[in-house]
Specification:
This protein has 206 residues and is of the alpha+beta class. The protein has a 4-stranded antiparallel β-sheet with strand order 1-2-4-3, with helices on both faces. The chain has a domain of 125 residues: NADH Oxidase.
């Protein structure tokens, strides 16, 4: 429990990365697969990720992200994509798995499928669910990164249209954020954490 709290409290949005230290593809995959245990409505997992690692592509991505230097310095940048088509694309695999694992009976599949798809047919609902669940996935990425001694910085400062064009992302997808990931520049020190609101300032128990 203490270790979990430590990982959460240590997470910071790092603006300076060690550009000399790389991250292996295997470690990136492990972090993302761990993060994919994030909750999602009906387990539809409405997220996709494009990992930008090449120096040439990071230079272009930096321009799209309004020339934020950390985009180029970080060894990798995760482009988080929220997929509003997830229900249609993933529903059969998800329900078949639920049947196989004993969560539901085969005879309930079609009724469950129809009920779930009826919600996701509403474009606004699909957008909201996809972005919400992708954000949960993104938060898991940042916590999982700390397990491996890595730092992250989530960003929404980028031109979404240009980013979609650059990475050939379908127009009907959403990009809630990109996340720079890497090791902190050892020659720089973090300032103390900025003020965070206390419970009494943002919550109530009724």
């Amino acid at each position: 429990m203490k270790e979990c709290k430590k990982l959460i409290t240590e997470r910071r949005a790092i603006t300076f990365f060690d550009s000399a230290k790389e991250i292996s593809d295997d470690l990136i995959k492990e972090i993302l697969e761990t993060a994919s245990l994030a909750p999602s409505a009906y387990n539809l997992q409405p997220w996709k990720v494009i990992v930008v690692k090449s120096k040439e592509k990071k230079k272009i991505l930096k321009e799209i992200a309004f020339n934020q230097q950390k985009v180029e310095d970080a060894p990798a940048v995760f482009v988080i994509i929220a997929n509003p088509k997830a229900a249609l694309e993933n529903i059969d695999r998800v329900l078949d798995s639920s049947i196989e694992l004993g969560y539901m009976k085969q005879e309930r599949k079609e009724a469950s499928k129809e009920r779930i798809l009826s919600v996701w047919k509403d474009e606004e609902q699909a957008k909201r669910k996809a972005i919400r669940d992708s954000a949960l996935f993104a938060m898991n990425i940042m916590i999982a990164a700390r397990v491996y001694g890595l730092e992250t910085h989530p960003m929404d400062g980028f031109d979404e249209g240009k980013l979609k064009e650059f990475l050939n992302i379908d127009e009907d997808m959403y990009i809630p954020m990109i996340i720079a990931i890497g090791y902190k520049d050892p020659g720089k020190e973090l300032l103390p954490r900025a003020y965070r609101f206390k419970f009494d300032e943002f919550g109530e128990i009724i």
